[in-house]
Amino acid sequence: MKELLFSEIEVDEKIAYKCGLTKEEYQKIIELLGRQPTYTEIGIFGVMWSEHCSYKNSIKMLKTLPRTGPHLLVSAGEENAGAVDIGGGYAICFKIESHNHPSAVEPFQGAATGVGGILRDIFSMGARPIAVLDSLRFGNINFDRTKYLVKGVVSGISHYGNCFGVPTVGGEVYFEDCYNDNPLVNVMAVGIVRTDRLAFAKSKGIGNPVCIVGSSTGRDGIHGASLLASREFTEDSEDMRPTVQVGDPFAEKLLLEVTLELIKSGVVVGVQDMGAAGISCSTSEMSARGNVGMSIDLDCVPLREKNMTPYEIMLSESQERMLFVFEKDRLNEAKEICNKWDVPISQIGEVTEDGVLHIWKDGKKFAELKANFLVLGGMAPQYDRLSLEPKYLETTRNFDFRKLHIEKINVKDAFIKIFSSPNIVSKKWVYEQYDYQVRTNTVRISGDAAVLRLKELPNKGIALTTDCNSRYVYLNPYRGAVIAVAEAVRNVSCVGAKPLAITNCLNFGNPYNPEVYWTFKQAVMGMGDACRFFNTPVTGGNVSFHNESQNFAVYPTPVIGMLGLIDDINRTCSLEFKNEGDLIFLIGESKLEDLGGSEFLKVMYNLIVGDAPLVDLEHELKLSNFLHLAISEGLINSAHDCSEGGLAICLAEKCVYSKNLGAFIDLKLEPKANVLFNESQGRVVVTVSSDKQSKFEEAITQFNLPYQLIGKVQKDIFEIRNGFIFEVSYLQDIYFNQLERYLEQS
Amino acid sequence: MKFAVVIFPGSNCDHDAYYALKHNLGFEVTFLWHKDTTIPNDIDCIILPGGFSYGDYLRAGAIARFSPIMREVISFAKRGGLVLGICNGFQILTESQLLPGALLKNYSLKFVCKDVFLKVINNNSPFTSFMKVGDVLRIPIAHFEGNYYADEYIIKQLEDNEQIVFQYCDEFGKVTEDANPNGSLKNIAAIVNKNRNVLGMMPHPERYCDPILGGTDGKLVFMSIVNFLNKI
Fold first, then answer.
1. Tally of domains within chain B
2. Which of A133, A535, A633, A732 could form an SS bridge with A171, CB 3.0 to 4.6 Å?
3. CB distance from B12 to chain A under 8 Å?
4. CB nearest B114 (choices: A432, A440, A569)
5. Of B55, B113, B207, the CB nearest to A440
């Protein structure tokens, strides 16, 4: 006989709307159930069908991405994170995720729990986190609110990552007006796991115990996913602060150790972290993957507050919790391991055969839902949204550059202005607040990509980078996304790694706005095409829509996180000059018209116009292969790619990272602004010992890559012939101290 | 000769110290658990590693001092056993009153992770026996609470008894205000107790024991310990 379902109040359209559901979605729920949902059920539908959990407006596009490859151990979207086989019996798990909305309303806890959430995704796979990268975007640096957000976000990441004991080794920090109201906080976590110890978020085995391991459940974070993360910012968003969770990195550190020990002991059937949508999400997703159900007694959930309702318990986003399904006869072993680490464990239910979630409290049944109704890949809605090419593109594309009279710009002044831009200068003020060395794997963080050794695989290493120039994506969404992938490839190649796979974090505005949706579709297509070309599949990631306020949407910002593999950790490459007299070569071609979206236009004219620079994937691939060869054979002494600010900034960066070395550069043509600051793609500056010049030229000729000898490494001075001369020590002061001056000046 | 590294809940440099001692230096090393109530007889030197023991709730190191293993570590130290506290370990040692003074929040009120230079102030300790006075070491720091503080009387005692072991300095060995990363009195980076068998240091020697990581000066601390033990 069917038990009576209990609902505290009668559910109607209005209540469904308050849970984040549209009228149509509410009707669909009634059809699916063949009855009115209970109050608890509508809450569960609200979070599970939210943009954040269901990917309802993005999944159709995401399915077009290349998501398989010979090295992928799990396909994108199937598990908590992607897993890439790196040989020797080990895999790297990695994923990037956003915590934009929480960070906008409460920067410290928002960013901290962003780190916590993505770390749990990694260690719930059985992998030990070995690195974190943060891709951060803020508004105008001169605004007090921006400074407040930067300080809060950076200290939140520092607080959580440092205490947890994972090194923060890289990322990006950009400042742009479009992020004034809505900063972007994307965190990428990377872990290593023995392939035979990969854990999966799948429930099976009728009668197996379902347990919560970790912290107790409180009222924090309710509606974090369904409302805060799935709507735009309005003037009332400040009131959403209570929906931001509070993180405890110490609890997470213990949860890490206990999770890995549980998995190693063989008692675990399946495990999933509890992040967005808490118990609702973990129970339904694990059940749906295993085609089973669960009977859950909420009276057994340890609570930190009195009188919590089933609705609140199911939706709570309290941090540092994991849902485990254990082998029936080994629950005691699991409890012993938890006791050793003093981490609470509570059985809250068991696996059932029927594919249904049964939610009980006080002897009453509050929900009875097929797991399949709730999840992505099941009955959760999937939409195609209307898309329309944005009108602004007409203006930006047809901008007439002639009226700027760029040829009249004094390049010396322009250079210093661009070099001092907060987007260019060193992010030392940020990264010195992160422990980037703990776990003693960090070989280098200063170059185009972070380099880590792997203790588990002697001599091997990995390279990690996050990349996206959102101005390019704004000006040309398809090409901008292609460039983001190409730059990531270039960055890992510059340190000597082979690009393996990517993860992505797609930050966009409101998907119900056809112009926003058009940029989304174009960017996903661009990313997919580039990843197919480089054979670097997408292992997973995250979509964050609704990044806009009443004022404007953010630039479309598809952040690419890339993993590269280093065969020999003793043969990597760094960016700084090594020896006086080394020859400086520019590989790739500079095109004087590639000024669209450049740092030059922004700094000198406050303009973001034109088209994104052209990108030639064939060339990028050849360049990547050449760098790999040149570094492994020791043909080059340094490498650095040209990105924001162009060639002049690239050279200056090489100077400031060098010890008492500078450069004499002769470009054989008048160094006007469009020569020095164009942002043509596919360019890398390398240095070569003079005795290896012929070998280098022989090799690069075989690759049929355009290159040019542009100068020599000299002592202490950076000079561009007929352009400008600076002492490197002067540039170092700007480069390493300017960000602090921007942020600490009141 | 054998090292032991204590694991507190929240320790996160425990495995780094273990790895450096075992794989970079080739010494024998084992772990001790915070709930242990005995220390094996064959241990010569105990390392309290970096991290955030017990979440550093209340104050860094304030809860760790009450853990079962610390009772044993204190009596081990009282018997003359060598104890090296690194970063959080240094904080635990001052909280346990095995070392005088306290470690306050950094002057910048920020966590700081970077390379610093250390001047060897005296080599009359088991932890510096392999160094020369005036040597300059490059070793990283990574802490929020490393600002050494003690009253004038204690500072004078530290000076009179030659208990200051490392001071923050510039790359040429000059002890300057600019070279002080956290506001420590007298640029103090490490001190030793009166009996010279307990050392606390904020910098992380275990991080610079492998050339691939960018430095090897950290090895000198561990080699000093072994050098000292070999002589007795």
1. 1
2. A133
3. yes
4. A432
5. B207
Q: State the pLDDT at residue A2.
A: 53
Question: Considering only CB atoms, which chain A residues are within 8 Å of B20?
Answer: 440
* ipTM of predicted complex: 0.96
Contact B105, B144 (CB under 8 A): yes
Cβ distance A665 to A415 under 8 Å? Answer: no
Is the separation of the CB atoms in A282 and A323 below 8 Å?
Answer: yes
**Residues 149-168 in A contacting B (C-alpha not used; CB under 8 Å):** 155, 158-159, 162-165
| Contact between residue B189 and residue B202 where contact means Cβ atoms under 8 Å apart | yes
SS (H, E, C) A72-109: EEECCCCCCCEEEEEECCEEEEEEEEECHHHHHHCHHH
Tell me if A1-59+200-382 shares its fold with A68-198+431-572: no
Q: Which of residues 65-124 of B touch A (CB under 8 A)?
A: 110-114
Contacts of B140 in chain A (CB under 8 A): 437
A33-37, A245-249, A572-576, B132-136: least confident range: A245-249
The model carries a pTM of 0.96
**CA-to-CA separations, A117 to A212, A422, B5, in angstroms, rounded:** 16, 29, 30
Rounded Cα distance between A641 and A650, Å, is: 7
Cβ contact (<8 Å) for B140 and A437? yes
Which architecture does CATH list for A1-59+200-382? Alpha-Beta Complex (3.90)
- Is there a contact between B56 and A455 if contact means CB atoms under 8 Å apart? no
* C-alpha–C-alpha distance, residues A455 and A458, integer Å: 6
Domain A68-198+431-572 homologous superfamily, CATH: PurM-like, N-terminal domain (3.30.1330.10)
Sorted by where each begins, the domain ranges of chain A are 1-59+200-382, 68-198+431-572, 385-425+573-746
- Please give the average per-residue pLDDT across B159-182, as a whole number: 98
> Could you read off the pLDDT of A189-231 as tens digits, one per residue?
999 999 999 999 999 999 999 999 999 999 887 776 565 666 6
Q: Annotated catalytic sites of B, by residue?
A: 87, 204, 206
Does B19 contact A440 at a Cβ distance shorter than 8 Å? yes
Residue range A312-334: mean pLDDT, rounded:
95
- Per-residue pLDDT, A69: 85
Structural domain span for residue B144: 2-231
Residue A639 in contact with residue A491, Cβ under 8 Å? Answer: no
Active site residues of A: 52, 99
Confidence of residue A1 (pLDDT cuts 50, 70, 90): very low
Are A434 and B113 an interchain contact pair (Cβ–Cβ within 8 Å)?
yes
**CATH code for the domain in which residue B202 is found:** 3.40.50.880
Residue to substitute from A255, A440, A566, A744, interface B, most B β-carbons within 10 A: A440
